[in-house]
Amino acid sequence: MINKNFDFTVTTTCGYCGVGCRLEAHAKQGRIASISPALDGPANEGHTCLKGRFAHQFTRARDRLTSPLIREGGQFRVASWDEALQRIVSELSRIKSEHGPDAIAGLASSRATNEDCYAMARLMRAAIGTNNIDNCSRVCHSPTSFALRRSFGLSGATGSFIDIDHAEVALLLGVNPTQGHPVVGARIKQAALRGCKLITIDPRRIELADYGVAHLSPRPGTNAAVVLGLCHVVRRDGLTDEQFIAGRTEGYDALVQLLERYDPSAVEEITGIPAADLEHAAHIYGEAQSGSLLWGLGVTEHKYGSEVVQLLCNLALMTGKVGKPGSALLPLRGQNNVQGSSDMGALPDTYTAYRHVSDEETARSFEQAWGVSLSREKGYTIAQMFDAAIAGDLKAMYIFGEDVAQTDPDTAHVTAALESLELVVCQDIFENETTKYADVILPASSFLEKSGTFTNAERRFQVVEAAIDPPGGAKTDFEILTTVSRMLGHEMGFQTPWDTLEEIARLTPAYAGLSRERLGRRGLQWPVRADGSDSPTLYDTTFDRPGGRGQFAALPYKAPGDAADEEFPLVLVTGRVLQHYNAGTMTRRTHNIELVDRDWLEIHPVDAARLWISEGDKVSVRSRVGHTELHARVTERIEPGHVFTSFHFPEARTNLLVGQSADVNTSCPEYKVVAVDVRPLSEQPAFTPALGPHKASARQAQWSA
Ligand SMILES: Nc1nc2c(c(=O)[nH]1)N[C@H]1C(S)=C(S)[C@@H](COP(=O)(O)OP(=O)(O)OC[C@H]3O[C@@H](n4cnc5c(=O)[nH]c(N)nc54)[C@H](O)[C@@H]3O)O[C@H]1N2
Ligand SMILES: Nc1nc2c(c(=O)[nH]1)N[C@H]1C(S)=C(S)[C@@H](COP(=O)(O)OP(=O)(O)OC[C@H]3O[C@@H](n4cnc5c(=O)[nH]c(N)nc54)[C@H](O)[C@@H]3O)O[C@H]1N2
Ligand code: SF4
Ligand SMILES: [Mo]
After folding, report:
1. Which residue has the least CA distance to atom 6 on ligand 3?
2. With a 6 A CB cut-off, is 203 part of the ligand 1 pocket?
3. Which of 324, 388, 532, 677 could form a disulfide linkage to 394, CB 3.0–4.6 angstroms apart?
4. Which of 14, 16, 17 to mutate to test the pocket of ligand 1 (most atoms within 8 A of CB)?
5. Ligand 1 pocket, 180 CB below 6 A?
6. Where do the H-state alpha helices sit in 23-141?
7. Nearest ligand 1 atom, CA 222
8. Are 697 and 565 in contact (CB under 8 A)?
9. Which of 11, 17, 179, 447 is the pocket-test mutation for ligand 3 (most atoms within 8 Å of CB)?
10. Beta strands in 115-168 (DSSP E)
C-alpha cells in the first residue's frame, strides 16, 4: 500500500508503446498529479510524447473496474473476490477433469509486466497443465521474431535507438514512428536535420517522408518485390560488402540467382515504384558506410510478412550493415512490453528466451523448479484457439489484458468463438468489447499501479514502480494470477514481483545477471550475463546460429492474400494514430478524446471525387467478410486506390472488415491488405458510381503465386 498522506515522485517506465520512455510520476494524495520525462532515460533522453506525459486521467475514470463481476441471467453483478475466484477455479477444475488441460487456453497481456506475463505462462503450464498460452505479439511482430531467429539467431533488435544518431542512412519500411513511436520519431527527425539520409517506404506519405531524401510508395503487400529490387541494384552496381559475405554469411549464391528476376523495371510492374526511384534509394543505402533498417506492421501484418523480414536481413547482410554502431536492424516493437511477454515464454511453443517446449533439458529445468511434469507438445496460437473453440475442442479462455473482440481480425469469427466457450475470464482495467462475452471479470491494475519490469524494443529491461494503488477493490495482476494458481493447487512461492524476476534469472541463461539492483535507473539490454554485463549491440563478431554465420534467404515475391477487383475496388490499409492507443480503453478516457474523437477513413481526393464523397461524409465500407460505417477524411497523404483507417474506437468495428488471411509462418493477420467497396451514405447522390478495378489489382493478379 502506498501512503496517501505524502506527495511523492517515482521513476517508472511508460506503459503505452515499445519505446520505453522513463517517466517521473508525481503523485498527490494517492492520485497522479502529473508526469514528466526522466532526464536520464536511455530511450527518451528527457523527452516523452503526449500519451506518456498527459494520458493518465484514465487511472481515475469513473468506470474503472473496481470489483469483480459475475454473469448471472445474462447480466453482470458485483461479486466478492472470494466468490469470483471460487467460480473461476471450480469451473477450470471441472473443465480440466472432463475434457483435459488442453481444453483451456490463456492470453497474456503485453501491456503488463514481465513478472505478470511469466506468472501467467506458469499458471497455464504448471497449474493447468497446457501450453495453450499466447500473447498479442501473434498479431503484431511474431513475423519479426520468426525471421530474426532464422537469419541471425535471436528474437530482438540488433542494436539500440542510439544507432539512429550514428547512422549515415536510415531506411524505414512500413513503419510510421511519428505516430506509433513518437519519441523515436522525434529522434529520427533530429538525425535527419543533422544530415542522416532518410528513406521512407510506405503507401502513405507519412510525416517523416517530408524529412527524407527519398520516399517510395509501393502498393500494399508488395514489400518483398521492393526489397528484392533494392538487393538487385546493390549487387548489380557493386555496392556489396564481399568480405562480410564471404566471412560471416551463408546461402548467398541462391539469393544471387533469385535476384536476377528483380530488376527495377520488373519491380516497378509489381510495386508501382518508378525504377529510377528504386535505384536512387538503393544507391543511398548501399553507398553509405553505416545504415540502419527500421520496420513495423507495414511489413509484418501481411501474408508473407515473415519472409519480408528475412529479405530485409539479406539487405543488411549483403552490405555488412549489421552488428556495428549506426548499422542496426530495429523492428519498432509495439506495446510497452510485447518484447517482454514473448521473452518470458507467454507463447505456445517456447519457455523463456525462446527455448522450445520440446527441448528436454529446458523442460526438465522448469519441471524441477516448479515440481510438476510439463507438456512437450506446443499449444494453440490465438487464431487456433478461436478455431478450436468453434470446433468444440476448447472450452475455456482466461484473457488477461487483451481486447480480442475489438483488435483481432474477423470480429464475427472471434465473437462466435467467445460465445461457444463454457467459461470466459477477463482480467482488465475496464470493461471492453471482449468483457461482453465474459462469465467473470476481474478488476486489475494499470502500469501506474504496479511494480516489476518491462522490456522495450531495444531488448532493454527497465524497472516499473507503482506511483498509486489500484482503485477500489482492484488488485494487481500479479496478486490475482498468483492467487488463482495457488487455489488451483500450484503455489508459485512468490511474495513480490522481484522474487519472480529472481526466478526468471535463475532459470534463463540469457537473463542470468538480472536483478532489481542491477537494473538501476537505466536498465539492461539482454542477453544479461551472470556478471551483470549486457549487450547493446548483437552480432558484432558472430551470429547466434549454429556455425555462427548469418543466413541469406532466397524468397521470391508472392501476391498478397487479398486484392482489389470489380466488386471491391479499393485496398484498405489499417493502422494507428498518435492520440489513441490500440483498443483505446485508456486514451479514450483522457483529454486525447478532444483531439481525435473517431476513426476516420482517409481517402485520396481523386477517389473521393469519383465516389461523390466529401470531407466529413459518412461512408459505408464493405469487404468480403464484413461491413461498417466511417466518416471520410480527404487527403493526399494516401495514394489513389488505397484507403486507410485506424481501429481505436469500438463504434468503428474496423476488424469486422478484416478476414482470416495471415502470415504463412506465424499466423500474424494480414490487417494491411483488405479489398473494400466504399460508398457515400449521407446526401446520397441519385446514382452511386462504382469505382472500376484499380490498375494495381490487375498487375498484382499476374504475379499471383
Ligand atoms: N499512438 C499510438 N502508438 C502506438 C500504438 C497505437 O495504437 N497508437 N500501438 C502500438 C503497437 S501495438 C504497435 S505494433 C506499433 C505499430 O507501429 P507501426 O508499425 O508504425 O504501425 P502502423 O501505423 O499500423 O503501420 C505502419 C505503416 O505501415 C504502412 N503499410 C501498410 N501496408 C504496407 C505495405 O504493404 N508496405 C509498406 N512499405 N508499408 C505499409 C502503413 O501505411 C503505416 O503507415 O505502434 C505502437 N504505438
Ligand atoms: N485493424 C487492425 N487491427 C489491429 C492492428 C492493426 O494494425 N489493424 N494492430 C494489432 C496489434 S499490432 C496489436 S498489438 C493489437 C493490440 O490489441 P490489444 O492487445 O487488444 O489492445 P490494447 O489496447 O493494447 O490492450 C488490451 C487490453 O488491455 C487492457 N490493459 C491495459 N493495461 C493493462 C494492465 O496492466 N493489466 C490488465 N489486466 N489489463 C490492461 C486494456 O484496458 C485493454 O482492454 O491490435 C491489433 N489489431
Ligand atoms: S513514445 Fe511511447 S513510451 Fe514514450 S511516452 Fe510516448 S507512448 Fe510512452
Ligand atoms: Mo502491436
Report:
1. 49
2. yes
3. 388
4. 17
5. yes
6. 50-54, 81-99, 114-122
7. 35
8. yes
9. 17
10. 133-135
Q: Is 67 exposed, middle or buried (0-12, 13-18, 19+ CB in 10 A)?
A: middle
Task: Calculate the alpha carbon distances from 518 to 156, 698, 701 in Å.
Answer: 21, 58, 55
Whether residue 509 is preceded by a cis peptide bond, meaning omega within 30 degrees of 0, is no
What phi and psi, each to the nearest 5 degrees, are found at residue 163? -60, -30
Q: Check pocket membership of 647 for ligand 2, CB cut-off 6 A.
A: yes
* Residue 510 near ligand 2, beta carbon < 6 Å: no
Is the Cβ atom of 427 under 6 angstroms away from ligand 2?
Answer: yes
Q: Which amino acid is at 649?
A: F
Distance CA 113, CA 620 (A): 40
Q: What pTM was computed for the model?
A: 0.95
Q: Compute the distance between CA of residue 622 and CA of residue 633 in angstroms, rounded to an integer.
A: 17
Q: What distance in angstroms lies between residue 14's CA and the mean position of ligand 3's atoms?
A: 6
- C-beta of 562 in contact with ligand 1 (< 6 A): no
Q: Rounded distance, CA 81 to CA 476, Å?
A: 13
Q: Which residue type occupies 204?
A: R
Cα–Cα distance, 238 to 609 (Å, whole number) = 46
Q: What whole-number distance in Å separates Cα of residue 101 and Cα of residue 289?
A: 54
Q: How confident is the model at residue 682 (pLDDT cuts 50, 70, 90)?
A: low
Give yes or no for a contact between 519 and 453, defined as CB atoms under 8 angstroms apart. Answer: yes
Q: What is the pLDDT of residue 398?
A: 98
Structure confidence by residue, pLDDT tens digits, 615-669: 999 999 999 999 999 999 999 989 899 999 999 999 999 999 999 999 999 999 9
Mean per-residue pLDDT for 421-430?
98
pLDDT tens track for 554-576:
999 999 989 999 999 999 999 99
Sequence-separated (6 or more) residues with CB below 8 Å from residue 21: 13, 14, 37, 38, 41, 43, 44, 47, 48, 49, 52, 183
Q: Is 41 in the pocket of ligand 3 (CB under 6 A)?
A: no
Helix (H) or strand (E) holding 427: strand 423-428
Of all residues in the chain, the percent with pLDDT exceeding 90 is 94
